[in-house]
């Protein structure tokens, strides 16, 4: 069977034309931090995964603890509807999420993807204000350079000009956008954000941001003090606050959640990706009792959302195992915080030489995120090929060559990933 030919004829890949102009690599298996290729590419038969499969496979592949959790749950039940029924894996997962996220977040809505969890968060906020008799509060306020998903409502709060969803302008709901936040804390920026919010407070349902790191919108980092300011502004103007921690949650920035860096709680928080260790699709939207009661006391007292695979037992079981492994597992050199600090230091040292390359605009590292930003667009095919020749899988985009490696990546493989990032960046000079 010619898998590559069948793929080209029938499979539509994300953010790619049909048929694809750059042929995807066929992976036959994966183990640890390595992807085994079905056929050699440039003499390479396996690749170190520098992307954690889009930031989700934080424990790598075929982890024995996670494999065992899935197998054990299959022996009990793979799925049961969540309407009118419940089960131990979902109950335990919800309790754990409440325990490890900021204190005011007490209620958990489980769903099947990050984009959907953000949709649910928006629906919670809009329905809250309907329940409070303020239907005019139906717009969302965010800052530019953000990314929150590919469904229509989430696209409406992605960057309206520079993002991949700009072609839907005029079709999407028009939201409110402040400028992208500067990296260091800037009081004048906060004052401008406050002025925008003040002018529209009567129609704003919620502020929504990615805390500390704006991910797919440009891998931009900002001071956690902005989150404190947003909490204060939301309270002062009677709007809700949403943190989208799909990418930043479960340790990626060096703290368990990015919100922990600021010591504040949103009214709604979205989590996903690393929650199941990349094994199965699952995400969640957590909210405060204020939000839940506001909906329950309204004219339509139920949250108007019900995914078919909500609370899927397989996904919940592996999520429980993944979170337990993150918090209590044995890591290289100590606990998870020490391990993340090790990865951060390795990325800082390994990517430092990129500063001397032509066309490199910035090199930055936060937690287990390493970014090389160029002054021009990346040649995706050339940059990917350079990384593959170095034995690493990377997925550059726009003007960025970056890595979010699995947390189980050892120092030797981490150095190899940095070498590949630099090799990919060189193709743009």
From TrEMBL:
InterPro entries linked: Aminotrans_3, Aminotrans_3_PPA_site, BioA, PyrdxlP-dep_Trfase, PyrdxlP-dep_Trfase_major, PyrdxlP-dep_Trfase_small
Residues reported in the UniProt entry to bind substrate: 54, 147, 273, 306, 395
Entry's EC annotation: 2.6.1.62
CDD domains: OAT_like
Broad class of the protein's primary localization: cytoplasm
Co-factor(s): pyridoxal 5'-phosphate
Binding site for pyridoxal 5'-phosphate: 114-115, 244, 307-308
Site (Participates in the substrate recognition with KAPA and in a stacking interaction with the adenine ring of SAM): 15
Pfam families the record matches: Aminotran_3
Keywords of the record: Aminotransferase, Biotin biosynthesis, Cytoplasm, Pyridoxal phosphate, S-adenosyl-L-methionine, Transferase
Subcellular location: Cytoplasm
Enzymatic reactions: (8S)-8-amino-7-oxononanoate + S-adenosyl-L-methionine = S-adenosyl-4-methylsulfanyl-2-oxobutanoate + (7R,8S)-7,8-diammoniononanoate
Pathway: Cofactor biosynthesis; biotin biosynthesis; 7,8-diaminononanoate from 8-amino-7-oxononanoate (SAM route): step 1/1
Modified residue annotations for N6-(pyridoxal phosphate)lysine: 273
Any Gene Ontology biological process: biotin biosynthetic process
GO-annotated molecular function: adenosylmethionine-8-amino-7-oxononanoate transaminase activity; pyridoxal phosphate binding
Gene Ontology CC terms: cytoplasm
Stated family: Belongs to the class-III pyridoxal-phosphate-dependent aminotransferase family. BioA subfamily.
HAMAP family in the record: BioA
Subunit comment: Homodimer.
Protein role: Catalyzes the transfer of the alpha-amino group from S-adenosyl-L-methionine (SAM) to 7-keto-8-aminopelargonic acid (KAPA) to form 7,8-diaminopelargonic acid (DAPA). It is the only aminotransferase known to utilize SAM as an amino donor.
Full protein name: Adenosylmethionine-8-amino-7-oxononanoate aminotransferase
Organism from which the protein derives: Virgisporangium aliadipatigenens
Native organism taxonomy: Bacteria, Bacillati, Actinomycetota, Actinomycetes, Micromonosporales
Gene that this sequence comes from: bioA
């Amino acid at each position: 069977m010619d898998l590559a030919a069948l793929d080209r004829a029938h499979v539509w890949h994300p953010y790619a034309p049909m048929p694809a102009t750059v042929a995807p690599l066929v992976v036959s298996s994966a183990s640890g931090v390595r992807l085994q290729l079905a056929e050699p590419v440039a003499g390479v038969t396996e690749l170190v995964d520098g992307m954690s499969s889009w930031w989700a496979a934080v424990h790598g592949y075929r982890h024995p603890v996670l494999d065992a959790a899935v197998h054990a749950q299959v022996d009990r039940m793979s799925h049961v509807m969540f309407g009118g029924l419940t089960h131990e894996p979902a109950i335990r997962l919800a309790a754990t999420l409440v325990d490890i996220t900021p204190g005011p977040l007490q209620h958990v809505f489980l769903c099947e993807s990050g984009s959907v969890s953000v949709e649910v968060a928006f629906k919670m906020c809009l329905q809250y204000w309907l329940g409070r008799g303020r239907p005019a509060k139906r717009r969302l306020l965010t800052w530019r350079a953000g990314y929150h998903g590919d469904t229509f409502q989430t696209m409406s709060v992605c960057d309206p000009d520079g993002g991949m969803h700009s072609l839907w302008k005029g079709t999407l709901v028009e939201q409110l956008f402040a400028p992208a936040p500067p990296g260091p804390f800037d009081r004048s920026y906060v004052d401008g954000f406050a002025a925008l919010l003040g002018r529209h407070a009567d129609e704003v349902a919620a502020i929504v941001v990615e805390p500390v790191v704006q991910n797919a919108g440009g891998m931009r980092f900002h001071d956690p003090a902005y989150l404190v300011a947003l909490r204060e502004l939301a309270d002062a103007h009677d709007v809700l606050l949403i943190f989208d921690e799909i990418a930043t949650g479960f340790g990626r920035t060096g703290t368990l959640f990015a919100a922990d860096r600021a010591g504040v709680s949103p009214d709604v928080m979205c989590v996903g990706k690393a929650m199941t260790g990349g094994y199965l699709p699952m995400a969640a939207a957590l909210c405060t009792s204020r939000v839940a009661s506001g909906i329950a006391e309204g004219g339509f007292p139920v949250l108007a959302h019900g995914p078919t695979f909500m609370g899927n037992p397989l996904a919940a079981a592996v999520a429980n195992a993944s979170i337990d492994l993150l918090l209590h597992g044995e890591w290289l050199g100590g606990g998870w915080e020490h391990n993340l600090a090790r990865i951060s230091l390795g990325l800082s040292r390994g990517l430092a030489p990129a500063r001397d390359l032509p066309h490199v605009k910035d090199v930055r590292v936060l937690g287990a995120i390493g970014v090389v930003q160029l002054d021009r667009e990346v040649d995706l095919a050339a940059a990917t090929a350079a990384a593959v020749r170095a034995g690493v899988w990377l997925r550059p985009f726009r003007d960025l060559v970056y890595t979010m490696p699995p947390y189980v990546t050892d120092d030797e493989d981490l150095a190899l990933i940095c070498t590949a990032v630099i090799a990919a960046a060189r193709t743009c000079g």
